[in-house]
Amino acid sequence: MEFQHLKTRVEPDGIGVITLSNPAKKNAISIRMRQEIMECLALWKTSDNVRLVIFTGEGNIFSAGFDLEEFRNPGVYDSLFNTSAQYHRDIWYFPKPVIAAVNGPALAGAFDLAKLCDIRICSEGASFGHPEIKFGVPPLMTPLRWIVGEGIAREICMTGRRIDAAEAYRIGLANEVVAGDKLMARALQIGAEVLLAPQPALQFLKQYALDHGRGFEESFTVEHDKAFQEFLLCKGAQAARKKG
Question: Where are the alpha helices (DSSP H) in 77-213?
Answer without folding.
Answer: 77-92, 109-116, 142-148, 150-159, 165-170, 183-194, 199-209
